[in-house]
């Protein structure tokens, strides 16, 4: 334990000093937010009763087909769009995501014990808000603490559905949650916390079938909570099994881990994993061994997900600071907590190993903030992923808008300005906002500003390098009846892109400014196009691969 002491004491002193200055913004991501902030929210309820996208979108080549039938519709010929003038401000491909936390009923369901009908109604209303804001991805927490918001033979039902851990809510929410996202043209990423096992150290309070009760040697009691021991191969195998089970049985688009690995520094208590370290450390330093344990889990889960379904994406939302420059020359010019040293999360190792498809660093601080400057961290992360094939989206602190933790958050233009910063870096392909409750409250009218200034058009999802690039068939039978465009449904379609220009041209579908709608394939293949112009319709598969366009002029 001397290595742990050597690393932790000076680090903890720096962390505590930073925490005092940074307030609640210091270390809380999706997982931590749900644990720390929600407690205040629960008390209040009791008292009351991230250049986004691909700016050089290139149409994917496809074999030319015969002209489409109906009212002069034609198949646009393949053409290079590399020289097309496009706008970073109106990126054609851009991930726009929202984290929906379930732990402690932070976002959904709003409280435990709602009927299935009430739970469905709340979720639909939340997704309708996201769709209205032109979001295209949801990251919903399906496993807050070794529990399940879905039907599982491996782990007990979550208490956040019924109020009682292990109690069957009378329905399996996950198929509905996924289907409703898809109905609105959104990807669904199932969000897991890998190591949190319980909010109590009393195993007897957990359901009888809880893995921690069945395998008490897997867990570490730490500062009032239970954690699975990342140093045990059995734990890594279990987490992988749980993730693989969801990947296999449900139509998810992505598997997502939050920023919780080893516990965040709290009261300075030693994490009691010395026995596992003695057994599996093999001469490594404790800190290196812990990082290696996390790296192994990430690699193992990534392999399992892609083996089960090659089209399912896997990504992590790490804490916003990898390492500070004071620790290592390749670190960022920041002074906050280091994920590398504090929670043993080495995001650069995951990038190098290509064991993640995307990263969403939680850059939860404003521009100009000395301890952790947004203007410093975005280019650092952009450089970290440059040329690697790992997509970069920025985790945005929507929950901070209008608060007094840092003066900048009281300014309504702070969060929108982050998207302007992103546009300077082509590696940044979108943003994910924490948390979904602020979609409802719209603090400082920030969501209105985001839509007005940055989300004026819909956006296609970014393409993940290394995944299938086979383009689907172009729409056929395109016609116009005076009010509505309609076409034949295409096999394998997730949605259809609708573009409009005043006159035909080879760059029509390269420019996001021309994208006027994304029609989910769950809807009738049609669009109410009344304005004269040239329309292009494309087929999009679940990965965002786009067909050649079918063109139709309306006069």
From TrEMBL:
<protein>
    <submittedName>
        <fullName>Glycosyl hydrolase</fullName>
    </submittedName>
</protein>
<keyword id="KW-0378">Hydrolase</keyword>
<feature type="domain" description="Glycosyl hydrolase-like 10">
    <location>
        <begin position="94"/>
        <end position="409"/>
    </location>
</feature>
<dbReference type="Pfam" id="PF02638">
    <property type="entry name" value="GHL10"/>
</dbReference>
<dbReference type="InterPro" id="IPR003790">
    <property type="entry name" value="GHL10"/>
</dbReference>
<feature type="region of interest" description="Disordered">
    <location>
        <begin position="53"/>
        <end position="80"/>
    </location>
</feature>
<dbReference type="GO" id="GO:0016787">
    <property type="term" value="F:hydrolase activity"/>
</dbReference>
<dbReference type="InterPro" id="IPR052177">
    <property type="entry name" value="Divisome_Glycosyl_Hydrolase"/>
</dbReference>
<dbReference type="InterPro" id="IPR017853">
    <property type="entry name" value="GH"/>
</dbReference>
<keyword id="KW-0732">Signal</keyword>
